[in-house]
Amino acid sequence: MSRNTRGGSKAILAVIALAFLAELAIAEGTTESPGPVVVAPDERAVLIFPAIVQRDDSADADEAATFGTSLINALEKAFSDLSFNVSIAPIALVQGEGLPAEASSNAVAVGARWAVIISLEIANKRIAYSLRVYEASETALVASSGFSSYAGLTALPLFADSAKAVATKTAALQHSPSNRTTGPIQYRITIESPDEGAAVVIGTGGAWGSRNVGIIESGSLVLPYIPFQKGTDIVVGLSKKDMVAIDVPIELGDEEPRIVIPALRKKEKENLLVGTGPGRLLGVGVTYRIFTRPDWDFIFFNERIFAGYDFSPGSIPLIHMETWEGLGWYLLFPPKSPFRMGACLGGGILFSFSSASSPTSNNSVFVDAAIIPIEGFMEYRFRKGPTLWLSVRGAFSINSSGLIGQGWMGGGQPDLTAGLLWRR
Amino acid sequence: MTMLRIPGIILATLVLAFAFQGCSFLIGDPYGNYFQKADRWVNLRSALKNQAGLNLSDVNGLAVVKTTSGGNPCDYIFFMADYYDKTSRIRALGYDGLNLLGFDSPPTGGVLSATVDMSNDIKVGDASYGASSITSVHTSLPTGKWLITDNPTTSNFLIYSDGINLHRDLYDSSWLPGVIGQSQISSVPGPWNLSRVAVLGDGRICLLFSLGMGDQGKIQAVTFADYPTFDSAFGVGGLMESPDAVKGSQIAVTTFGGSFDGPSGIDAWITENGVVAMTTTSNNQATFSRYPLGSGGSVDSYSMTYYSGNLYFFESSGRYWYIFDVGSGRLVRLRTWWK
Lengths: 424, 339
Known about the structure:
The structure holds 2 protein chains of 2 kinds.
Chain A: E1 11-14, H1 21-27, E2 45-49, E3 51-53, H2 61-81, E4 85-88, E5 92-94, H3 100-109, E6 114-123, E7 126-135, E8 140-150, H4 155-173, E9 190-192, E10 199-202, E11 211-215, E12 220-222, E13 233-239, E14 246-251, E15 259-260, E16 270-276, E17 283-293, E18 297-308, E19 318-332, E20 339-353, E21 365-381, E22 387-397, E23 407-408, E24 415-423
Parallel strand pairs in A: 2-4, 2-6, 3-5, 9-15
Antiparallel strand pairs in A: 1-6, 6-7, 7-8, 9-12, 10-11, 10-13, 13-14, 16-17, 16-24, 17-18, 18-19, 19-20, 20-21, 21-22, 22-23, 22-24
Helix pairs in contact in A: 2-4
Chain B: H1 6-20, H2 24-27, E1 38-43, H3 44-52, E2 56-69, E3 72-83, E4 88-94, E5 100-105, E6 114-116, E7 122-124, E8 127-129, E9 136-138, E10 146-149, E11 156-161, E12 165-171, E13 177-184, E14 193-199, E15 205-210, E16 218-224, H4 227-235, E17 251-257, E18 268-271, E19 274-280, E20 285-291, E21 300-305, E22 311-314, E23 320-325, E24 330-335
Antiparallel strand pairs in B: 1-24, 2-3, 3-4, 4-5, 6-7, 7-8, 8-9, 10-11, 11-12, 12-13, 14-15, 15-16, 16-17, 18-19, 19-20, 20-21, 22-23, 23-24
């Protein structure tokens, strides 16, 4: 092996990897084969797979092997101190990193519960290494440690600390069940959303135990790695100021899911409704709602102006102008539902203008006062455009001096109005 | 239920709701559409309160009379005012302006009609009044009967029925009783109740009967071309041989309906343009149908929201009709839908 002196950088990447990679190394042209390894099939069995991976001719496998041996020794001591039975596979030279699944498979084949993969890299006289411990039957990462330092004697204490750390974590798990059918996911979850700046939480937003994991930037967020078990369901919440938060359930499987969360909907703060109905077809009603609790409770102001005209001989249109106001509540179905229902209460002042003359009045302007003891409404929101709405109002005139007289308006027939609703 | 079905449900609800509202979908007015025909109105409750300190509760009976005195028109509307103190009086309005007049008469015999007698006085209730000033001329007159005069005017006749026979009582100009005539309404005895009598502008005399027995709910209008025809009918005994029979070419008999049991029995009025009869439906609709005198079916009708307790009245001229709205205390004069 020769040193790479070009560019002043000598990079030797040595990955001490799985013993199974012996077979892989052969396939890739390596000269050494680790061969089969036999270890005791108990929970205290640890199989260490050392191998030096030489990615190119410039790698200095000798120097890497020197540090690798020290790291193996530190690891063996740490596990042995915790009463683990440690087996070490021969060091193999490979041209790529070993895969945890293959390492685990080999460990299972020899009856070891734990498989350890060691990665070592020397570049510009600095050494970077990692230790990863897997539950072999599930290829489940249970402990890891790593560090980077000057490639000299000062690295040896770091080896000891890292080895002790992963051994201790492994020892804490040695009495845990090992017959789990699933392992942790092997990917980081990516959330895609068009809502820039939206906060992402794991768990239902605002609920106890939920965890903020970041915000959407450039249309997506890659969550930090969390070792969720495969097959489990999690909830990812997305929230943003003045928008309706959304919770998306996700089932985690072997493959990384593509999670695309649709655009958040604005919280309703104002509504504008325009419509008409039987008896008021020669006119229009406009309602403005301002929400006291977004999406749920509102105050409404309803103005109607229409002509009452039956198109029969002798009739002259009456002009009616109604001003209603009151409170309303959505009662059924959540805001995200396209179909919702609710109820209103309120009252109104109603003006009617007639051309008829009278000896007891200078004009024929009649004023009625009425209450709305009950009004039900329903809405259906299409994917695009305004919302269709329908209301059924029962209005009771409370004064007898107006045009209606005391009693239910319309002779008790319900006051139907249908129209379109715009949200803001 | 899938979300895809919901628009269909909404549409179905709309259709059903609109269907429930019937024709009012297009022409209904939640305020009661009759005021679209209002020509003039007066609040009788406030007028009586302000002018006489009286508390009107209801109006029970209305009559219109038009005559002249000294070449001046003397047109009035008489109405029975029921007060909250349980008393009742007959009051009068000027016809044109609907202004409340000072006329205040005890209600003996009710309003029933206001008719000009052979002396050009106006008989209302149990008294007659001078047309120009509506001051009392004769008192203690018979009540509960319909007044007509002959032509040329020589006598006053009070017409009434006892359910079987039609009676005609003769009075002179001083309202002293004369020869009493009687005619059997039908050779088949039955409850032929005389509901209204009107002398129309062209001299026709129209009697409106509400029929009974097997014809319950039917109305029969018997129209005589003139007074001599009416007089001759009395002279031959049976006025009608059957409800639909016409006795002589100058007498037109029209029977119509079958469901004219209005809120106050049979609500029908005689106008020069036909008989107007009211029916009400369970969904608070009132329909006024017009039947020409002397022929069959309805020629037109008008529907409106029906309010229980209101008073309805049609002028015999056919130009106006009236509604007293008991809720507001307003008397409204309305244009008819055929003129």
